[in-house]
Amino acid sequence: MYSRRELMRALGTLPFIPRLRAQPGALDLRHRLLGRTGSWVVPLGLGGQASLQWTGEDIDAPDIVVRAFELGVNYFDTANAYGPSQANYGEAFRRLNLDQAARERIFVASKTGNRYAFNPAAPNAATALSDLRRSLTTLFGDGSGYIPEGAYLDSFQIHNLTTLQQVDQIYEGVADRGSKMPDRIGALAALMDYRDGTDYTGLNPERRRWIRHIGITGHQSSPVLMSAIQRDRWDMIDTVLIGMNANDRRCACHQNNVLPLAVARGLGVIVMKVFADGAFYGKPARFSNNPGDVVLSVGQSGGIACSDLIHYVESLPGVSTVITGIGKVDRQNPENDQLVANLSASLDSDVASPAALRSIEDTLASLHPPAANYFNERRENLTQPSGVSAELDSGRMIVRWSNAFAAAEPIRSYEIYEGDRQLLSIPYRPQLTTEPLTAWLPAGELQGGAIRVVAAV
Predict the structure, then answer these.
(1) How far, in Å, CA of 358 to CA of 246, rounded?
(2) Structural contact between residues 16 and 10, judged by C-beta atoms closer than 8 angstroms
(3) Would strands 75-77 and 107-112 be described as parallel, antiparallel, or unpaired?
(4) Fold of the 4-372 domain
(5) CB-based contact 277:210 (threshold 8 Å)
(6) Who contacts 54 (Cβ-Cβ below 8 Å, separation ≥6)?
(7) In whole angstroms, what is the distance from residue 216 CA to residue 238 CA?
(8) Terminus of the chain with fewer CB atoms < 10 Å: N or C?
(9) What share of the chain is helix, strand, coil (3-state, %, to 5)?
């Protein structure tokens, strides 16, 4: 196992680098379990944007992937929406002569932004399945349609869910598998076929097994991601990729909402936007759209340390790995190599205390407003439980409610009241499915008043 200091010292010794290149993945890095996927991943993964998507003239983008592989990184992120990112990965894998044994040591995840696998209203439009084929041919084939026998993605994710309508769309047809399918088929039903080698949708006649796991991703809304997870009574979704950083409790508060639900359901949790897509280091607070938006330095003078930001998210309970986009690697000067800086920070990252996490938040708040997290919605206030009902049944009162949504402070408990009289306090637990949370009260204790449920922080 290497400490941060040892890694930096090793990378500063030039003869060490050819040895790494000859023995890819030689560094013995600590790993975390990626939820119920059963895969073990290094806590620092490679994001698919930055210079892999927006490549400057002097940047060898595939070498970023090669460098990550050499250093022992084994979680690799990309997407169909990321321009040349998948092609840069494909070139890197060719440079590495990626054989079957090496392929099994890494976890490759791509994404589709398409919500449907088949939509008769748009027969010529791209679909989740056309994106799947594009990912496989670009990453492992010739980029022109050829997919080698045995090629697969460790995870294929539905990209950037932002509305409940989109959740409805991706679930279309899932409940119909094994019976007559609807005319329009959402992404999840078809991706299950390509995971399991089945053809319930009629869209996998060759019964391909091109993916091992299905995931979802999102930056904006905890309620949307939570709905997608809660609706999954088939345990289809194995991973969730969340946009979250040390600004989170001033913005979307994902760490108090979707994160505990994902952990309770056994999902592997990946965190992105640790540096707010460069907004913490001088880039405008908007999605990047050209190579000039890519940050090439290691941190910024007067800015918050990148190691603190990595330390923060890696300390959140249940986080498996943190992906960071890389603008630049520097084999001759490791102190200027973003990948080395991020990986060494991750290696040096023990779980921070609550006080240490608050200190990082305070430092960031002194430098950047909540709007730096331009990709998050702002959740300023606790949203109380919805759908509260109470009914008598065989001498007891059954109280049901749907989950509250936390703001900056986590929900501590659900309190059940009759009027102003507290009847019961239940420690917080996530609502795992669409079935409401439930409590039972002896009817003899009730006085006929209105029942209400309050989330307490």
Answers:
(1) 9
(2) yes
(3) parallel
(4) TIM Barrel (3.20.20)
(5) no
(6) 83, 288, 289, 290, 291, 293, 294
(7) 8
(8) N
(9) 35, 20, 45
Give me the half-sphere count of Cα atoms (radius 13 Å) on the Cβ side of residue 443: 9
386-456 maps to CATH 2.40.128: no
| CA–CA gap between residue 282 and residue 352 (Å, rounded) | 26
pLDDT at 27 over 90: no
Q: Is 386-456 in the same CATH topology as 4-372?
A: no
Instruction: Give residue limits of the domains in the chain.
Output: 4-372, 386-456
Query: Per-residue pLDDT tens for 290-312?
Result: 999 999 999 998 999 999 999 99
Centre a 10 Å sphere on the Cβ of residue 261 and count the other Cβ atoms it contains.
Answer: 21
**Strands of the 413-418 sheet, one edge to the other:** 421-427, 413-418, 451-456
Q: Are 42 and 34 in contact (CB under 8 A)?
A: no
Tell me the residue type at 92: A
**Separation of alpha carbons 234 and 36, rounded Å:** 14
Backbone CA torsion sign across 203, 207, 209, 212: positive
| Element housing 99 (H / E) | none
Angle at 150 between CA 144 and CA 153, to 5 degrees: 75
Residue keyed to tokens 């703001």: 407
Residue 75, beta-bridge partner list: 107
Residue 131 CA to residue 318 CA, distance in Å, equals: 30
Tokens 């996927």 appear where?
37
Q: Which amino acid is at 127?
A: T
**Is residue 12 predicted with pLDDT exceeding 50?**
no
- pLDDT > 70 in the chain, percent: 94
Decide if 192 contacts 186 (C-beta within 8 A): no
